[in-house]
Amino acid sequence: MKHEPLTEAVYYLLLAFKTPLHGYGAMQYVEEISQHRVKLGPGTLYGAIKTLVGKGWIELVPATKNSRRKEYVLTEIGEGVLQAEMKRLEELLLNGQKIMRGEADDH
């Protein structure tokens, strides 16, 4: 599966939606997991959610009778995108570490 690198915000949102969560909860989760470095405003958050739903990476959880908030969850496609991004990030890290240790091949 080929995709463009994810922005940090989208990466963290996909992680947040690994379990069903509403938008505000996802916003809090992203801020918490990034140690308050990544903060999403409501406009950015809900624009991103709309985009992620449109791409089929997250989906709306069917509402229960008593729920007032919309909850979203990662889809199988979204999980594949997230796994591919984690693999890409791991490669970046490993290559950087090799170069910094002087273990990389000369060009």
Structure description:
This protein has helices at 8-16, 23-33, 42-55, 76-100, and strands at residues 21-22, 58-60, 71-74. The chain is built from 4 helices and 3 strands. It has 107 residues and is mostly helical. A 3-stranded antiparallel β-sheet has the order 1-3-2. The chain starts with 7 loop residues before the first helix and ends in a 7-residue tail after the last helix. It has one domain (8-100): Arc Repressor Mutant, subunit A. 55% of the residues lie in helices and 8% in strands. The longest helix is centred in the last third of the chain and has 25 residues, at 76-100.
What's the helix and strand layout?
Layout (H helix, E strand, L loop, with lengths): L7 H9 L4 E2 H11 L8 H14 L2 E3 L10 E4 L1 H25 L7
Antiparallel strand pairs: 1-3, 2-3
Helix pairs in contact: 1-2
Please indicate the percent range of residues in DSSP E strands (runs of 2 or more): 5-15%
User: What is the correct CATH architecture?
Assistant: Orthogonal Bundle
Supply Rg: 17 Å
Please give the order of strands in the largest beta sheet: 1-3-2
Number of domains: 1
Structural class: mainly alpha
What is the terminal-to-terminal distance? 29 Å
Query: Which regions are unreliable across 5 or more consecutive residues at pLDDT < 50?
Result: none
The fold-level CATH name is Arc Repressor Mutant, subunit A
Order of helices and strands: HEHHEEH
Give the overall shape.
elongated
Number of helical segments?
4
Helix share of residues?
Answer: 55-70%
Q: How many beta strands in the DSSP annotation? A: 3
